[in-house]
Amino acid sequence: MQIITLIFGGPFGGRFLLLSLLTLAIYWPGLNGWFVFDDIGNILDQPALHISHLGWQELRDAAASGAAGPLKRPLAMASFAVNHALTGLDPWWFKLTNVCIHIFNGLLVLWIAWLTAGHLFPSLPERERRRFALIASALWLLHPLNLSPVLYVVQRMASLAALFVFLGIGFYLYGRRAQGGRRWLWIAAAFACTVPAALSKENGLLLPGFLFLVEWLVCGFKAQADERQALLAVHSLLFWLPVLATLFYTALHPGWITNGYANRPFDLEQRLMTESRVLWFYIGLFLLPNIQHMGLFHEDIPLSNGPLDPPTTLLAIMGLGVLVVMAWRLRHQHPIASLGIFWFLWGHSMESSVFPLELIHEHRNYLPLVGFCLMAADGLRLLSRKLSTTICTAVTGSILLGLMIATAARAALWGDTAAQMLVEVQNHPNSAATAYEAGRVMFRLAENVEGDEQEKYLQDALRLFHKAAERGNIGGLYARVVIKSSLLQDDVSKDLSELKRRLSEGPLHAHNFTLLPALAKCQQTGKCQLPAAEVWSLYEAIRRNPRLSSRNRALIEASAARFAVNALHDLPLGLTLARQAAEAYPGNGCARTTLIALQLALQERKNATVELNKAIAAGTSECSVQIRHLKEQLAAAPKALP
């Protein structure tokens, strides 16, 4: 296949192999870092992924165990399970796998750029087309903005989705140069890549839009009349119709988007205005990749509360409008510039638009950044016509060298997670999430030492957690309660009071639904010296919060049921709460698992059977392992005497 020859021979003569080895060498120091942030909940604390061999049932359970996004990202979850089966929970191997995916994606970018040049510049000498493709791929592979999707393990979700999107675009461009029926087979394969892309991460659903862009701006719908009509029909059916259907559904049912803002510190209007500035922030990091401005978290960027609050909001909105107009006007004279702008904007159309997600994450640029890399490579191609080859080579080499140095420095920092987080706290002093994550790193260091050194790390962790809590991160409060009650035996009454207030009144971050059960477990095991009544008061506080969604209420009621039975020794209360969990989220069978477990413990075999059947009928993909274990317990339970 053509893509294989791009690595070992063909027009590139092994140059990409050298670029791959260079990329691997730059990222190598970063492989030594730990798991961070969402790696914990999605990988470390996900027992369904911790498989010992690659059996079909184990992989199926792992794939179904995801909780991120509406599609649960089963392909990415299964890939983590494969890593565990082969190498255990060593983050080094997880990160190496990510680097390999990144390098393969770089090969696909090379292929896309090569095919794009072939479509747009058929008369261009092969040497220039080869240079254009290599530069585009090198810019993308070596840019430090692409580091977090690689070394932040859980963002394999983003890189896997990009892999299938790139593969689909390559199939499409390759197929458009094929003849007869083979053309339509390649086009069908291109659109089919949407499925594995979306099952890796939801922004894989953007693939049909990318295929429309490359058809419109690269291929130009050039074909015989009947084939042209067929192409228009395919893009109308597979891209425009779903887009229009989504817009129509949203107009009739806006709640499927707006309801998600209940637990966000911003509303839809604030998000849209802020995202206009965020997009320019991303563009700035591409053009001037200062690694001091990069980081895991950027929630310290202030919200836009109006077009002039801050004033840069209006400028950002107008600037995006100018970009769109410019892209439209350049579509004939400079199609790659037009493609690059529209590619970037379309790539952000899901995660930087109306959906109630966090405002900013660098890994969201992994897919959109290709558009700007194509633009930059084309700009350097045009520059070579005005300047001497020596000067143009020097400019290109300087740019790539600068990117390599920045990425190597950033990779080395990510290889030492403790140093990384302290540097990020320094670079983002107003970021609550950064302070919290740095506090977790200090706490981990404290767990591995003793004496004065442990005390130092604990005090550093408490300081960082306090800083996080002051800036609104509720995880900081949980962490302070755990450290003070388990290791320092300090008074936690003030922290508990503030925690109750926030749980009953404030927005409920997703981490509450793992942190509160973790605190309850800490109390039950005796590690946290807390009265059970105090922990129960936290459950009562969060259960009063009017912002609880159905799903989250089910999670809290189920956790409260387990705490009522195990810590309060109140079985009737536990059963009542378990039933409330099932009623709160009837469309998901996982909400019934606590009730089934309690009924089995009480030897209520008949009731447990009824609830298990209801759970299976409602759907149990998120808890398939747990359901299987409950079925096994039910089968082994003694039948009632006649």
TrEMBL record:
The UniProt record lists the keyword Aminoacyl-tRNA synthetase: no
Annotated transmembrane regions: 12-30, 96-120, 132-151, 157-174, 183-199, 230-252, 272-291, 312-330, 391-414
Superkingdom of origin organism: Bacteria
Alphabetically ordered keywords of this record: Membrane, Repeat, TPR repeat, Transmembrane, Transmembrane helix
Keyword Transmembrane helix in annotation: yes
The name this protein goes by in its record: Protein O-mannosyl-transferase
Native source species: Methylomarinovum caldicuralii
